[in-house]
Amino acid sequence: MCTQNLQSWCATGVERLLAPSAIEVRHHTASNVAANPNTCPVKVESLANLLVRDLPSYANRLIQQRRKRTERVYSSLITASVPELQPIAIGSREYPANFPQAAPTQVFITTLETQYTDTRSAQLQQFHWLFLAQTRQGWRLANIYTRTGGFPLKNNPISPPVESRKTIVGEAVSVWLNDCYIGKIRS
Fold first, then answer.
1. Pairing of strands 162-163, 138-150
2. What is the distance between the alpha carbons of residues 94 and 97, in angstroms, rounded to a whole number?
3. pTM for the full model?
4. CA 69, CA 150: separation in Å to the nearest integer?
5. What is residue 165's three-state secondary structure?
6. Interior CA angle at 142 toward 67 and 105, to 5°?
């Protein structure tokens, strides 16, 4: 069930996935990154564009590392959408925002995954709400919430948001951010 604050997130549709591809994002990000091609971007826009470019390969490597060959169901992450950076206003009546500059940055991405069994395959669309924090050790994943639905969404129900730091996508984002910090990501 969607709360008032999450209406825009709940209304997410296929258009996120059908936005310009990660290949197009690559061309836009090259000019937004510092002169050193292995420097992790300070600006969240550049960081998010590089993240969605690499997310499918990071997630698929984790899937393959953890997959047991006897498993009958396995997945493959196909693509990630262009990130959306417009935050959802999160107000708390209990705790005033004394340090608004320390609040995590919100990033929204959509992924398309194919799940395979012995006899069929199904596509799943996932909507990820990332909270990224800038620390002394670079950008870190503070939290991530995910909603899952079939593809296309109009024919399938969508799940409520669940905390997903320990999922393949959550772990792939954390590994990618660490690799970015140590200079392994090329623009």
1. antiparallel
2. 10
3. 0.74
4. 25
5. coil
6. 120
In this structure, which amino acid lies at residue 22? A
The mean pLDDT values, 10 residues at a time, for the chain of 187 residues are 42 42 37 56 94 96 83 84 84 54 84 90 92 90 92 81 94 96 89
Q: d(Cα 87, Cα 131) in Å, to the nearest integer?
A: 10
**Residue closest to 20 by CA, chosen among 56, 53, 46:** 53
Tokens in use for 132? 């990224």
> Strand order of the sheet with strand 74-80?
74-80, 105-116, 121-135, 138-150, 162-163
Q: Residue 162's beta-bridge partner residues? A: 146
Name the DSSP letter for residue 140.
E
